[in-house]
Amino acid sequence: MPAVVPPRSRTRTLRVRTPDGVELSGVAVAASPPVAPPVPPPAGGRPLTFVVAHGFTHDVGRAASLRAAGWLSRFGEVRALDFRGHGRSGGASTVGGDGELLDLDAAVAAARADGARAAVTVGLSMGGGVALRQAALGAHRPDAVVCISAVARWYVRETRPMRRVHWLIETTAGRRVARSLFGLRLDRPWPEPPVSPLEAVAAVAPTPLLLVHGDRDAYFPVEHFAALARAAGPAATAVVVPGFGHAESGLTVPLVERIGRWASATIDP
Asked: Looking at the 3D structure of the chain, how many domains does it have?
């Protein structure tokens, strides 16, 4: 698979409105016929639609996000929306809280309304935690969930990158930097912490779940992955990838292909 963004001819703009009235913006990338089929197509199999949930401070217009969407499109259509407060979407970010749960829930509902027969959510970092929470608590459960580089619990400060994230979120100067540097609009702090990914993950079953984490993740140590895997139980597939770092910036062609193959085999075994 070439490491290039998908051509404009296969990309269209998405607009989705959430139940609480936030306008989300994103892109849909049409499925691309691979040079060789990634998996043997089953008779009467359901085509896949991937609904991608990005990480904090990312948006779907970034090169890393577009490359990943292009790689994943070998396995089905890819739909990616900016979370509230990010990119071209409206609203203000709740940093993986209940606002983003509503965003992903609306994205899955919109995919089904547009004819998706098998919706697979793919969450990265903040989006990974959102994907777990949405599959457990949302109104529109997906057909499968892929969770990449997710945090297990809230208020993580034991790594330097996460201390920087909390500075962005929790200080006046940091919030100004977040707006000027990343275009990020932040909502008020949570009045009460929402249900954490670790508390939610057991309720994802019986929906198929793939947990992916890198052994070089500088944000969330592998202990977060281990805690999620234990709580998810034997129904989940859990994979630690040697040499993989964190979320969008660490994705590679082989890893995206591995994810696509898992989704294809899981939806149509």
From this structure: 1
Residue ranges, the chain, pLDDT below 70: 1-5, 7-9, 33-44, 269
pLDDT at 2: 44
Domain that holds residue 150: 8-267
Separation between Cα atoms, residue 22 and residue 29, nearest integer Å: 22
Cα Rg of the chain, angstroms = 17
Phi and psi dihedrals of 64, rounded to 5? Answer: -65, -40
Indicate the burial class of 45 (C-beta count within 10 angstroms; 0-12, 13-18, 19 or more).
middle
Q: Give whole-number Cα distances, 93 to 8, 15, 86, 103, 179, in Å.
A: 28, 18, 7, 10, 11
Q: Are strands 118-124 and 48-53 parallel, antiparallel or unpaired?
A: parallel
Q: Residue 267: CA atoms inside 13 Å, Cβ hemisphere, count?
A: 31
- CA 53/CA 200 separation, integer angstroms: 17
Provide the CATH number for the domain around residue 178.
Answer: 3.40.50.1820
